[in-house]
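Sequence in, structure out. First:
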Amino acid sequence: MSAAHPSAPAGMPLARLDEGYPVLAALSPSGRRRLLEAARWMRVPGGTCLFDEHQACEGFPFVVDGSIRVVKSAPNGRELPLYRVGSGETCILSTSCLLGREDYRARGVTESDTVLMLLPQAVFEELLDERPFREFVFHLFAERIAGLMQLIEEVAFRRLDQRLAAQLLGKGRTLHLTHQQLADELGSVREIVSRLLKGFADQGLVRLGREQVEILDPAGLRRTASGEPARSAG
């Protein structure tokens, strides 16, 4: 990680931090003072790798603005998105690394310009003695575990065409993205996703354009997503 600052960056008041993380107001005065004195502020551009596999965890992150995408990479270059960390959330991987004193086993990359506050491990461990902070950490930990279990079910038990159909739904009539972006989101490869999209187009479910997918039959996509056979066009 880089671009660390000892205090909040200009234009980023502590009020934004408190808005995203109300638990900080529940800390004891000494605990809050300790947190703010020890924390490092970071402003990093989109596309920055904040941490990678086999690296040591530098601290507990509070995302004030922007988001971080956490992915697991395979030796062949394929990636599986695990989760995103936005304002008010925290990174289960960082938490587990701090608690277990282990290195990272995935990679975290900023999706846009991101401002975060990093709490050193020693202060993180001190604040776990305060009940509000401890409950906040483990509540988010439990939420992330539930989300990862759902992801495992999706990957292990749901066909890729079902997952692709579900990925296309709920984002409006026209999606402006590439086949590669869809493949990255699904942890697949572009060639397979392109073949499935062409199949959807042949069935009249979508219309394909340059870096865009137009939804023609949302109901048909929902049937595909649920595992029902899609009705052929015409």
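Second:
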Amino acid sequence: MRDATRQAVVWESLQAVIAGRSALDILDAGGGTGGFAVPLARLGHAVTVVDPTPDSLAALERRAAEAGVTVTGLQGDAGDLADLLPPASADLVLCHSVLEYVDDPSAALASVHTVVRPGGVVSVLAANPVATAIHRALAGNFAEARDVLDTGTWGEKDPTPRRFTGEALAALLGKAGFTVGEVQGARIFTDLVPSRFAEDDPDGLIELERAAAAHPVLRDIATRLHLLAHR
């Protein structure tokens, strides 16, 4: 249930993109085990996942089989998309939790731009340094909180190499040739409230997340920032 709550705002944005449209060509760059890909395939869309990890692709295949759908899995990085797929072959590209880890975020988005059809959409979800600073401070790690605000990472043991503000994400997408929509926050309260409260009233928490997602102050403290952009 906690995972569904965390993903609710992003799912609603994606549903608005695909509403009334059948059999879209969807690419999930870095889609891992198919958390988004398999449900999209169940809606009748043709979904391809590109991921660098063979174990994730194997888990994706099992998950798709259990759901009774077909999802194409290709091994590669986001920067390899132009080599793996034909140009202008996707109506929707998901680039979720990818830009934090690729060697060159600008090159990855340029590769995404190559495979998106004119009029197509890219969904970008990325970690936010402000939220991480809050979480590190609440854990008593004040120096790490300061560092992540300055550099986007809190030290050598940080598993996330970089994080992005909404302004930085919008600039990257604009540089890659996309028209950027509104920044939304995802997991604003979900990662802060105790689990027992989230489990007692998951619908209420989702409603709160929905209301806060576009709030000009609250969205900037979200664990993840979400943008939709058009080619």
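Remark: The chain is about 45% helix and 20% strand.
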